[in-house]
Amino acid sequence: MPKDHGIGASQKRREDVRFLTGAGNYTDDINVHGQAYVHFLRSDLAHGKINNIDTSAAEGMPGVVRIFTGKDFEGVGGLPCGWQVTDKHGEPMKEPAHPVLAQGKVRHVGDPIAAVVADSLEQARTAAEAIVLDIDELPAVVDMAKALEAGSTKVHDDLADNLCYDWQFGTDTETTDAAFKNAAHVTTLELVNNRLVANPMEPRVAVGDYSRANDEHTLYTTSQNPHVIRLLMGAFVLGIPEHKLRVVAPDVGGGFGTKIFHYAEEAFCTFAAKACNRPVKWTSTRSEAFMSDAHGRDHVTKIELALDKDNNFIGVRTDTLANMGAYLSTFSSSVPTWLHGTLMAGNYKTPAVQVNVKAVFTNTVPVDAYRGAGRPEATFQLERVIDKAARELGVDPMQLRRQNFITSFPYETPVAVAYDTGDYHATMDKMEELMDIPGFAARRAESEKNGKLRGLGINCFIEACGIAPSNLVGQLGARAGLYDAATVRVNATGSISVMVGAHSHGQGHETVFPQVVAEMLGIDESMVDIVHGDTSKIPFGMGTYGSRSLAVCGSAMVRATEKIINKAKKIAGHLLEASDSDIELKDGQFTVAGTDKSVAWGDVTLAAYVPHNYPLEDIEPGLEETAFYDPANFTYPAGAYACEVEVDPDTGKVTIEKFVSADDFGNVVNPMIVEGQVHGGIAQGIGQALLENCAYDENGQLLSASYMDYAMPRADDIPHMASYVVDHSCQTPCTHNPLGVKGCGEAGAIGSPPTVVNAVIDALHSGGHTHVNHIDMPVSPSRVWAAINGQ
Amino acid sequence: MYSFDIQRPTSIADAVAALSTDEALPLGGGQTLIPTLKQRLSAPSVLVSLGAIAEIKGVCTGDDGALCIGGGTTHATVAKEAASSYPALAALAGNIGDPAVRNRGTIGGSLANNDPSACYPAAALASGATIVTNTRSIAADDYFQGMFATALNEGEIITEVRFPVPEKAAYMKFEQPASRFALVGVFVAKYADGVRVAVTGASEDGVFRWTEAEAALSSNFSADAVPAAPSGDGMISDLHGSGAYRAHLIAVMTKRAVAAAG
Fold first, then answer.
1. What are A454's strand-pairing partners?
2. B249 near A CB under 8 A
3. Residue B186: which CATH number?
4. B132: distance to nearest CA of chain A, Å?
5. Count of domains in chain B?
6. Per-residue model confidence as pLDDT tens digits over B66-99
């Protein structure tokens, strides 16, 4: 019988009742009395020198409260980058200014130039049309290789060139070169990890409010981490101390990384609310989202894999150009380096791994973390080059992977701190079983009867989640700690509010976190609620990204709950006239071990708040505990994925016929929610692999600026549930956090893109198109057709 | 959007009168015009909604056997009510956009807009349809005049579209992955006096007849008879496919349409 409560129960998501019945409270649902609206006038040029911004005609237009330009933000801080990468020469990365509103130059289409605050949004838009811009268009820098050429136009005139940093990590050059020199076979692959737009269902929103009565600022915003925003905006941009700044991220309709970052619009609304002495609201349109939300991925990579005569991997070397866009977004610098390079060994015991990354400024929207963040880029190149090597060597791609698997743990790769645990053969076995690999030949024959080519793609991946050990990331350049925090507040009658630093924007925390507390206390989940998303209510936690919520914040919650249990046992011991070391807690009852003397949870909690019969000389009244948890290591979820595609050789269209994921997430608290996370991640990975393409033309104009040209995956692009199995039965619990959990939020998006592309290449080879070794994502019909026809 | 007045006339005569106002625009189902207004790319003084004119709605069969569809008829209605009389046309209507689009968008609106990737122009041209307006009747061959260009005069309203019903027909659409408009759509219709083949989505000149295929199929109506793909010159080339790819798809979709027509 599956469990119906506590850890391991597939409880339905309690938050869905309000989400699905229109009762959610999203940021755009928040309207503050007297609010004005801001419309941002954004650059339609990719690059230009601002000579003059004439707002005089616009200022007198109906409803206009005030018009702001970059001049109004002189003396105000720029948007900070949260991670300082040190380059291979020991120099810090180049960190150009990132003003709230453009100063001197515009650097990408969508760069905000002016902000019109008016009584209504329509009035603001109309007035913005009356602003006269005098901007000299400059040549745009779009292609990364060209951006690095000597004499290229510079995105930032105060820098020497467009290079943000030149980073190297892993095995030294001499050792790496020796591995390649000794290789029996070297496989090389050049590829692109396509630029993506996250496209959460809810666009970004910010509402700034200011109270003159007590000099307090409030920002309501669509964020994954309200405390991070409070810290960055308060300390680095606007100079507001924490106790005068409240940041609220209420219900948030999806983040996928793009709502981690501190954005100009947040700082603007907070600033303008005080300047105008009126609340100021901004709601992004979908069109604005395409040109102002941080984009994801955008790497151009050459990877080489060296194998010995027995097909053992002996060296991996990668060279990547990583697009930063026009400015450094909050965590942009960490993505191609520490979140990418450290995973470059994958699941394999390759002794020499060297990663080289040049980060490049271009006249495009800033690029930052998007679901997986660096790890999909690492997995894609490694798993594609392994697949190519298997084909070149004529060996089974599963066997080639298996023979190179890391099998003993902990294991320290040349690029990572130790993988604590894992069993890569187990997930491969499970994937093979669920995929029915022996039946593939018959399925391929059936497809061929219908004029289609069928391919089987397999893939392994590992990721580093549970971000992150603060002392380690501090050494690597992080400008923040990455612990998390939870306060467990037990109320007098025994109900519980858990204030958590993690933020739920679709993950299901409101369901999962209470399952853990209820299990520990032996009470019903309905007695436990979590509180999140409001810096005035929750302890200083770092929010949700990097599949960290349960592994890090959940661990803090466990620690705080343990403190509650310890104190409650003392109270129970007093009530039962026994030593607290003899008290056992089971099913919500405190019992003196070996007796039938017991007292109920509610009696103990009431005693804590009505301490008439209470050991006041030994312990304080009340029952509320806080814990901060800083992880000892990352967690390392891993898995084996497989898919089968059909390719229509006449049109190039690829359809996914079957998809299997076998993940090892360690322990699982709510299997249904884990499966949902993987389903969603795979859907986004399929989107990247087959559909999504954020494209610029050579002038820096965004070609895919709406859903008319940016292809989001839809339900019928994803395999039918019957052919779509997500498994998490292989479980090697994390060794260093109390729940033994590893995180599941990003796995699907990391594991699926190479799986799909490997399958497409396999299909094409089966049809005799053996000249096709790679197709860059998205593997669209036109690209498949062009590859088949050598165009 | 900018502010504007709206009128909802209930007769063609009232609509024509309303459209004589300066900067007035007719509003069909609004599936193109409303997004355009929201982006402030159009600023009419008056929107004249045609949605309340009962006489331009509905599907019927004319005395000559032609299928007559009122200009204000939605795609969903065509999908349902033309299913028995002209199944290929009904299937085309039933695959335009999504349910929201099909329940708002109208055939008259689609033909008046003449989007180079829209489905209806292919059906109208391949069927040799007659576009009837408040002032005249226009043969499809004269009606389509390039991307977003038609023979309509300002203020002229499509009241009805008459489709001669073919012996066999089918429409094959290869969808652009993002918009799901036709990257290439081919409508093949076989009549007693010959075969007509119309292509949408592909050409920089909008919908066109592929006359080589028409000639070949008129003498031998089989997929094998479809000629080699036309040249990619003059075909749309964009993020979603080159001109050569679109040209290739014309032949593939024509073959599939012929096979589907049976």
1. A646
2. yes
3. 3.30.390.50
4. 31
5. 3
6. 999 999 999 999 999 999 999 999 999 999 999 9
